Amino acid sequence: FLDEHPAFAMGLLNYGAALLDLGRAAEALPVVERLFSKTSMPAALCAIAHARYELGQFSEAKETLSHLYKIRESRGCSPMIMALGHIVIDEREQALEWLEQALKERDYRLVLLGGIIPFDKIRDATTFKRIFQQIFVGDGGTGWDDLVHGSSQDN
After folding, report:
1. 28 vs 17: CA distance, rounded Å
2. The pTM is what?
């Protein structure tokens, strides 16, 4: 399918992420670079940084992450994506700080937090557990329950 539809963005992103999850960073890198060249999707930069980091290209991975900051300044970028950019290059504290920001901004992407494999590195962190609990268990009145599960007034 991807050979017939080479610009199918989500297909390329998911294919690249699957290759990364399988430890095949060398194969993933050209896929996600192609994705970014076609779409300039910030999530593609996270995948590029991830592949470069796994290939031992640490300075190139950091440089890729710097492009996320430029995108955030110029046109906006989700704090959840910023967190992902940091966790894929093993910057755990920065990832947690961006997850905190995502919570403050009520970034809808936080509902994906449980299924994004790179975040496994910080699932035991107290901050991560608190954020996860606020989103999925209950928020103690901060409004996440309404956002994630629908307002009680909707019932």
Report:
1. 7
2. 0.82
